[in-house]
From TrEMBL:
Keyword terms of this UniProt record: Hydrolase
TM ranges: none
Entry similarity comment: Belongs to the NTAQ1 family.
One GO molecular-function entry: protein-N-terminal asparagine amidohydrolase activity
One cellular component term from this protein's GO annotations in UniProt: nucleus
Coiled coil feature spans: none
Record domain Protein N-terminal glutamine amidohydrolase alpha beta roll: where: 16-190
Enzyme class per UniProt: hydrolase
Catalytic reaction annotation: N-terminal L-glutaminyl-[protein] + H2O = N-terminal L-glutamyl-[protein] + NH4(+)
Protein name per its UniProtKB record: Protein N-terminal glutamine amidohydrolase
InterPro entries (UniProt xref): N_Gln_amidohydro_ab_roll_sf, NTAQ1, Prot_N_Gln_amidohydro_ab_roll
């Protein structure tokens, strides 16, 4: 009896639209579920933002050399393996895909210690199955006042649920009383998922002024 050939997960197999990271990750979760690449229980969607919606990330495709990109929010996928290190899937990063979480923490997240408070990151960690069931976006946040697109939208139809056509702000919000999942400071997240590896969050820090 032949073994079932498992689909390989690479950048090339992923649906990607620039500046629509939340939808890219939704499609990535959908693909992983459909192809049975990993149990959804091992996956969590991470929204990175803060109250000022100014969060620096390093090693981004749209960055320049070792300077960070300042996003209003960014979305990545975390896979926590039972017998292996956790990895991050970030389609906007120049780091490996997937990337070991320790490496991603050290080079992309770095530390809040040298940053002004307005740049301190928070992370909303949402179970993948919850994200697939509840996320909805009509893409209105990507339209200018005159109705034109800030960036071209994905070719597929907007992601909606029976209950909502647009709840993106509930995921971006770092208010623990709003939306789904658990909200962490960067330090809390690293302690929980990088197994208290303080060197990962402290190395190669760069100030943002």
């Amino acid at each position: 009896m032949k073994r079932r050939t498992e689909a390989k997960l690479s950048r090339e197999t992923c649906v990607y639209t620039s500046c629509y990271c939340e939808e890219n990750v939704w499609k990535l979760c959908e693909f992983i579920q459909a192809q049975k690449i990993a149990p959804l229980e091992q996956l969590a969607v991470i929204f990175i933002s803060n109250d000022t919606r100014t969060v620096p990330l390093w090693k981004q495709k749209s960055g320049h050399e070792d300077r960070p990109v300042i996003w209003d929010y960014h979305v990545i996928l975390l896979k926590v393996g039972v017998k292996s290190d956790a990895v991050i899937y970030d389609l906007d990063s120049v780091l490996p895909f997937p990337c070991n979480l320790r490496l991603y923490a050290a080079q992309a997240l770095r530390s809040d210690r040298t940053l002004r408070p307005k740049f301190h990151r928070k992370l909303r960690v949402v179970p993948a199955h919850c994200f697939l069931l509840n996320f909805a976006s009509d893409r209105s946040h990507m339209k200018n006042a005159d109705g034109t697109w800030k960036m071209p939208p994905p070719s597929y139809r907007p992601i909606q649920t029976a209950e909502s056509k647009m709840n993106l702000d509930d995921f971006i919000s770092m208010n623990p009383a709003v939306g789904w999942g658990t909200v962490y400071t960067l330090g809390q997240f690293l302690l929980k998922y990088v197994v208290e590896d303080s060197s990962a969050s402290a190395s190669s820090s760069t100030a943002v002024s």
